[in-house]
Amino acid sequence: MAKPKARVAGALTARRADRHALYQMSVQEPGVDLDVVDMVYKRANGRLPVRLREDFCGTALTASCFVRRRAGNIAVGVDLDPEPIAWGRAHIVPALTPEQAKRLTVLRGDVRGERARKAGPFDVVLAFNFSYWIFRQRSVLRGYFEQVRAALGKGGVFFLDCMAGSDVMVEQQERTRKKGFVYVWDQRRYDPLTGSLTCAISFEFADGSRIKDAFVYQWRLWTVSELRDVLADAGFATVEAYVEKEDKKGNGTGEYAKRESAPADRCLLTYLVARG
Ligand SMILES: C[S@@+](CC[C@H](N)C(=O)[O-])C[C@H]1O[C@@H](n2cnc3c(N)ncnc32)[C@H](O)[C@@H]1O
Questions:
Q1: Can you list the pairs that 79-82 forms with residues at least 24 positions away whose Cβ atoms lie under 8 Å?
Q2: Can you give the residue range of the structural domain that contains 102?
Q3: I want to staple 191 with a disulfide (CB 3.0 to 4.6 A). Which of 6, 164, 196, 254 is the partner?
Q4: Mind listing the pLDDT tens digit for each residue in 56-107?
Q5: Tally of domains within the chain
């Protein structure tokens, strides 16, 4: 007979769980992202950024953290999908003070649209969790980068993250145990001829239930060197890569440093920083 699944009173199950809350706990670290943004921007401009645009913002978690970070900070989130925007309005905005909430705007629309550009000029624009990989043609990606550049003010900086290394080109699943659930990252299909990459996020619970394909992404895998070229074509004068420093045991320290090159790594997460 099959072993009964664990049943713990109050334990998380697929029915009780909220996929946006689980997503945040699994893949978002706005504090880490914004520390890097502050550090890089201040080094270049001698002051901290005040006006931020979070592209592909989903629930606008990072934008909301930015307005909480310092009095006077202003953030604009942009996303096409009304569903995560509504979730953010219901779950994230109520945690802000009324004054903080006034400094956060979420636009429903395309990141390449006029409204997103006109909401500027911005000190920083962010495109995180590889969301820009949705743009699969070089001309389309370049058009997006040009729009970002046009939305930046003097000294403005564009931050995008990138997943590099041989592991990205492998069809595989990675399971990570979190508090009360397991986060499953599924690199489901990679086509080496087109660069097309399908990834999905699922969540599993102690009672055996799961939320399969809570999020599915149809992307193109862009390499760092391709991105440098497209950013240069879009007019950015410099593109730098920031990589997490490691301790003697090879564990990440949470601190990031600029790198000109890196040793071969199966999974290298970088922030690309474009300006000029
Ligand atoms: C991977 S989620 C990113 C969520 C969050 N910003 C993060 O860092 O984890 C990608 C988001 O991009 C949005 N999106 C896709 N194409 C878009 C476009 N052209 N303009 C605006 N948002 C878009 C989707 O609706 C989705 O919410």
A1: 79/106, 79/107, 79/108, 80/108, 80/109, 80/110, 81/108, 82/108
A2: 21-165+223-275
A3: 196
A4: 999 999 999 999 999 999 999 999 999 999 999 999 999 999 999 999 999 9
A5: 2
